[in-house]
Design goal:
alpha+beta, 6-stranded mixed β-barrel, 10 strands
Length: 500
């Protein structure tokens, strides 16, 4: 025990010791915050992808799947080795690329679904917007964009006026400046009113089955109908009940391209910009006719069996293998069965790598703190040369002297890790309140909801990840303590006490 007693005695009266602990704490705290926030983003990202896709997709190229009803029957009968059902629901769909005629021509995707079966395999009912909800969101986002544009213009005008030596009175007399300033005031008043309604829309109830059938089945014209992503709705300045022209082709033959006018029935919002900007959804039979593929589909969406809490009762890969066996999916059949992770493997790997690469870079803060530990202990060895000589002359062993300095380094690392983890935990728990304070002071929200489609900064603290932060930090502290400890252990007691 004398090693720990001496190590604490050497450390406790040094201000630089507390600086080293603070350095380690800062590194651990930042790592905990980064991993928690990135983990939250990863979870939200997975949820959004999984919400727009089914758990398992059965696909066949070139719209050759014409026996999909028979395949669905087989899929729904899939059972585990214990005779338990593994699939909750399945629904057919057809999907193809389209060109959209608007102010400019752009590409997108058209998806045909069965409104009765699709809500059972995806979160469609949660994403669909009622007519008044669509108008509120579109108006809210438009006003936000207009306010940002007016503010930017006024800032540029003010900066130019200052550079020309103009007074504030001269600026106020500028007709264009006065016009834009008045428009900005009006927009801000409208924004306050719309924002209140927008907050209510975020708490909207999911569509019922009756509402979904009403949405896809009601027409103001004789045209086929589509429900478009909210970003597409805003970008092309669409109106519910209005028309939009789409082009598509079932093959690369330009002569077989099909052009069709569609009635805009409504909008949806998934929270993923690309989906909300690129996708339009229609009834299966109408989209089949538009593409020109008869009674064929692109594939089948499958939802695995869930528990009451929404968790998978069986592994997705396990269900995929069972489905492959049930429908006899072979390489020569052209039928491919994939899980949602397999279809998004590259994207998911990129998000995972980004998280851990960022953590690896930030870990160098801990490394820098480790050099402080080396400096402290090296100075301590020089200052305590006489003490080390006395300890050795009284019977202290080489390993005992090493233990004193190793314990000192390990103490700094352990206390710094514990303190950093605690501070990181507190910060993560109150991160949205901190963001609110920053916004109130600077006027800038570090996590703009209109960019991320999230109202709060997502966080997820995993005990195992925190452990992977703390353990390396302690090991680094131990490693950096080795050099001073070895140097102290090699001191000759005779040399150490010769001039005392």
């Amino acid at each position: 025990m004398y090693k720990l007693f001496i190590a604490m005695r050497y450390l406790k009266r040094r201000i630089i010791t507390y600086i080293a602990i603070a350095g380690v704490s800062m590194g651990v705290m930042v790592l905990v915050i980064v991993l928690s926030v990135m983990g939250g983003f990863q979870r939200e990202f997975h949820e959004k992808i999984r919400g727009t896709m089914a758990d398992i997709m059965i696909t066949q190229d070139n719209f050759e799947m014409d026996d999909y009803e028979e395949l669905i029957e087989k899929v729904l009968k899939v059972e585990s080795a214990n005779g338990e059902k593994m699939v909750d629901a399945a629904a057919p769909y057809i999907q193809n690329i389209i060109l959209i005629k608007g102010l400019r021509i752009d590409f997108g995707f058209i998806k045909g679904i069965d409104p009765l079966r699709e809500p059972a395999v995806t979160r469609l009912r949660e994403y669909l917007l009622r007519e008044e909800e669509t108008e509120i969101i579109a108006r809210y986002d438009t006003i936000e964009y207009q306010i940002s544009g007016r503010e930017h213009f006024l800032e540029n005008v003010e900066a130019y006026a200052r550079s020309q030596g103009q007074s504030k009175k001269d600026l106020e007399d500028n007709p264009m400046y006065k016009l834009y300033k008045r428009e900005l005031e009006i927009l801000r008043d409208d924004y306050a009113e719309v924002k209140e309604n927008y907050e209510k829309v975020k708490e909207r109830k999911p569509f019922t089955d009756e509402e979904i059938l009403m949405l896809f089945g009601t027409r103001k014209t004789d045209l086929p109908g589509i429900v478009v992503g909210i970003e597409m709705f805003k970008h092309y300045r669409m109106e519910i009940g209005g028309e939009v022209v789409l082009l598509t082709a079932a093959s690369l033959d330009v002569d077989e391209a099909s052009q069709q006018r569609f009635e805009v029935l409504g909008a949806f919002r998934t929270g993923m910009f690309e989906n909300d900007f690129r996708y339009a959804i229609g009834q299966l039979n109408e989209i089949q006719k538009f593409i020109g593929v008869g009674d064929c589909v692109s594939g089948i969406s499958v939802k695995t069996r869930k528990s009451a809490s929404g968790k998978d009762l069986f592994g997705v890969d396990e269900v995929r293998k069972a489905v492959e066996n049930a429908i006899d999916a072979r390489a020569d059949s052209g039928i491919v069965v994939q899980t949602w992770q397999e279809q998004n493997r590259t994207l998911l790997q990129a998000v995972r790598m980004e998280k851990w690469l960022l953590a690896f870079i930030i870990f160098f803060i801990v490394i820098v703190a480790g050099f402080t530990i080396v400096s402290i202990l090296a100075m301590m060895v020089i200052e305590k040369t006489k003490d080390i000589g006395i300890i050795k002359s009284l019977g202290g062993t080489t390993s005992g002297v090493m233990g004193i300095f190793i314990m000192a380094g390990a103490f700094i690392g352990t206390v710094g890790s514990a303190l950093g983890s605690f501070l990181g935990y507190l910060f993560v728990k109150n991160i949205n309140e901190v963001a609110g304070v920053i916004e109130s002071i600077t006027g800038y929200h570090p996590f703009p909801p209109n960019v991320y489609y999230l109202d709060r900064i997502p966080t997820q603290m995993e005990p195992t990840e925190i452990l992977w932060v703390v353990l390396p930090t302690i090991l680094v502290s131990f490693a950096f303590a080795l050099y001073p400890a070895i140097r102290a252990a090699r001191l000759n007691p005779v040399e150490a006490l010769r001039y005392e």
